[in-house]
Amino acid sequence: MDITEYIQLVFTDYTLRTITLGTAVLGAVTGMLGSFAVLRKQSLLGDAISHAALPGIAIAFLITGAKDSNVLLLGALVSGLIGTFWIRGIIKKTHLKSDTALGLILSLFFGFGMLLLTFIQKQPNANQAGLDKYLFGQAATLVESDVLLMTIVTSVCLFVLLLFWKEFKILLFDADYTQTLGFNTKFIDILITSFIVLAIVLGLQTVGVVLMSAMLLAPAAAARQWTNSLSMMVFLAALFGAFSGVVGTAISASQNNLSTGPVIVIVAGVFVLFSFVFSPSRGLLFKQIRFIKNRRDLELHKTLAFMFHIAETHDDVSHPHTIKILNNFQGYTKSTLQKLVDKKYVTLDGSNWSLTSEGFKTASNLYNQQMQNNE
Amino acid sequence: MTQKIAVQVDDLTVAYNYKPVLWDIDLEIPEGVLMAIVGPNGAGKSTLIKSILGILNPIAGSVSIYGKSYEKQRSLVAYVPQKGSVDWDFPTTALDVVMMGTYGSLGWIKRPGQKEKKAALEALEKVGMLSFKSRQISQLSGGQQQRIFLARALVQNASIYFMDEPFQGVDATTEIAIINILKELRKAGKTVVVVHHDLQTVPEYFDWVTFLNVKKIATGPVKDIFNDDNLTKTYGINYKVSIQE
């Protein structure tokens, strides 16, 4: 199946269209909110919340006996919120560090959820099959109403984000200061956290409990590499998230038996990898290139400075000197000399070198330039 | 001379767990002084500021700003936190951080406009950082970051400034630049309270001092109370400084 054929199918095939739209919206909202989680250094919170949602799904099923996805997600929401507030409580009331609190709640709730799932599987109720789909998610179960719900939540989230943009930003940067300005930081905090919980719960059906946190973190981590502005970061994270959803769905739909959730997460992971290597300002590749280039420039400058100190002692700055003197200077190589000649700082005449007037001027300014660069 | 009292603290006691960090602090800060709070590590200097500002909840005691509760007088007070208390890799620019100083007067939801931007630019100029306005904050040196924090407080145009170790990790040039701004604030009739570590510079920089070590040891004009006796009481060792007159 080629790409044009596939794109045509996305618009005509009901199931494919629903899944593509659903994963795109989900990727956008989790990417958007994930930026806040990453900047608050609460990256693992998403993982804890999604795992904490599992018992809620099981309990909702036990109470209603039906597999209506909205009811199950409501259960997930409640237990996800309980987990979140317990984590905050543990951090506040005990001496435990946040990673310990997160790990504790994550495993406790997940363990309890698994216990309930196995209990449900032993029930005679024929309806119970497929509840374990929430572990790794199954995008194929998405229907139009699910996508509608996701879109509504995303719109509300976007609206609130724009409305309280200033407050979110200052809280993320400096919470204590925000409080002294008279803002109710607890309210802003709860607002952000609640939306993060909501976004995670919405994604459980598609991506599942285990992989959900990647949807939150990967697009945000990738976006941070490309920009130094918060609004741009949030926008890019939403874009990367949506794109991961669309591409992930396409890959899993064109191959047989590839589960959509993991594919989406891997696509998002590729975004992260690409960004870590190729981002112009923060990427590893350009950082290394800049590092090497700087070293070379410095070597060149050191050699030029050494020549400058020799030439300085003569009235005529272009007085020729033998190349042999340079052998005393550590770091001197033939190629650096050649580079200085190429830059017209130095002229060669047999076994002698002499500084040009331009080379002399550049060398005498080197120290000042160094100062300016540090500014 | 009768001076108005800018900040009054009564019977303030603060504890994090069981052990009190501040014990029964009574403190009056007269209007228009440039005051240093000195004391050893763990003496509760930052805690005192944070409690006055309502960031921490005291176990007992009360704080008033010009005779009214802090909640009512918030707009008169500006805070410069410790530089290390925030993540400087946050994706934002120097100007943007300074603009945050205007958020309090804007209140909820309303966005900063041209007026706020102008005020922020003026504050940046005052601290000598105007040419760095578009710089990503992680690319600023420690001293420059401290100046940005100071500019953010200046934008608030407050009457009382609380600063938590503004001289920490800054070079001599920045230190002089900062102290000159603080002295200017005092000249304009503002009250400035600074958590300070370098005892040598106290007589040169400040006109008022509070010695703190869980309890308040002493408070008053530097020329009257900055002496070996109080230093020894505060630091628990036989401390000798010579104050040049």
Task: Walk me through what this model shows.
- The complex is a heterodimer of chains A (375) and B (245).
- Chain A is an all-alpha fold.
- Helices cover 75% and strands 3% of the residues of chain A.
- Chain A folds into 2 domains: 3-282, ABC transporter involved in vitamin B12 uptake, BtuC, CATH 1.10.3470; 286-374, Arc Repressor Mutant, subunit A.
- Chain A is built from 17 helices and 3 strands.
- In chain A, helix 2 packs antiparallel against helix 13 (230-254) and helix 15 packs across helix 17.
- The model of chain A has no long low-confidence stretch (mean pLDDT 88).
- In chain B, the strands form 2 sheets. A 6-stranded mixed sheet of chain B has the order 6-7-8-3-9-10, sandwiched between helices. A 4-stranded antiparallel sheet of chain B has the order 2-1-4-5.
- Chain B is globular and about 50 Å long.
- In chain B, helix 5 (114-126) crosses helix 6.
- With 245 residues, chain B is an alpha/beta fold.
- The model of chain B has no long low-confidence stretch (mean pLDDT 92).
Contiguous helical run count of chain A: 17
Number of helices of chain B: 10
N-end to C-end Cα span of chain B: 23 Å
What is the CA-CA span between the terminal residues of chain A?
A: 57 Å
- Structural class label of chain B: alpha/beta
Number of strands of chain B: 10
Radius of gyration of chain A: 30 Å
Low-pLDDT parts of chain B are: none
Just give the CATH class of the largest domain in chain A.
Answer: Mainly Alpha
Q: Determine Rg of chain B (CA atoms, Å).
A: 18 Å
Could you give me the name of the CATH homologous superfamily of the largest domain in chain A?
Answer: ABC transporter involved in vitamin B12 uptake, BtuC
Report the strand count of chain A: 3
Largest interface: A-B, 27 and 29 residues
Major β-sheet annotation of chain B? 6 strands, mixed
**Residue ranges of chain A: pLDDT <50 for 5 or more in a row?**
none
Give the overall shape of chain A, derived from the CA principal axes.
elongated
Structural class of chain A: mainly alpha
Number of domains of chain A: 2
Which sequence of strands runs across the widest sheet of chain B? Answer: 6-7-8-3-9-10
Strand arrangement within the widest β-sheet of chain A reads: 1-3-2
Strand content of chain A: under 5%
